[in-house]
Amino acid sequence: MMSCEMVMSVIEHKTVPSPRRLYREVVEQIRTQIENGSFGPGTRLPSERELSEMFEISRSSVREALIVLEIHGYVDIRGGSGIYVCSQMPKAASTPAAPLLKVVDMGAFEIMETRILLEPECAALAALHATTQQRNMLRTLHAAMELVHTPQFNRDGSCAKYDRLLHLTIAQSCGNAALESAVMHLWDLSKNSSVFQRLDQQFISAQHWGMSWREHSRFVEAIVSGDALRARHGMLHHLLSIVERIRNNPAWLA
Fold first, then answer.
1. What is the pTM of this model?
2. The domain 19-85: what is its CATH number?
3. Secretion signal: which residues (predicted)?
């Protein structure tokens, strides 16, 4: 029988491979078919639904894969029409194949799933522990979010700025440093994820922003009034609604 010291020695020296997420596999497979000519320039790719069935993965994973390919210049996503292979291949296509994604890159839906796990509880704790100053700050940020809902909608990035500040203020108000740090890290991941940002740009609109603002109203009011249960449910509803809006974006239903 191995001793604890021997087990720890094996663990410390063993290289654990990073998991290959499904959408990464799809990225590389479609990329290979484009580069070897199976999908020629200008070719319309199968629909999201057909690709989902072909690769036996969710449509969300297919969507993330296509976003990666678009960002790197392999495909052109045309809302209401479909996904087409670009007429000119990116420079990367003429060099030895290398993964388009770094191991540390996170998928947009992975980030949202983790936010759904953490932020509702964060909101509940904030309702119990937020200081008067923090509650006033939440009121101010929520009011600022309403003001940027204008015909000049999000031209200067105000929507995203106030949204981030409000959620991070909730994290800072929860009274748990570990939870605060985890939530802040998730927001940094989303900010640095080109896939997440591209998805966000595609689904967001003045109409969606109005819906999001009303969702924020529910949990902000609950936190300010000290209602932990309503704060938790309000935040959960908001995050689930974001995922639903991204998944049901009409531009992807061609």
1. 0.72
2. 1.10.10.10
3. none
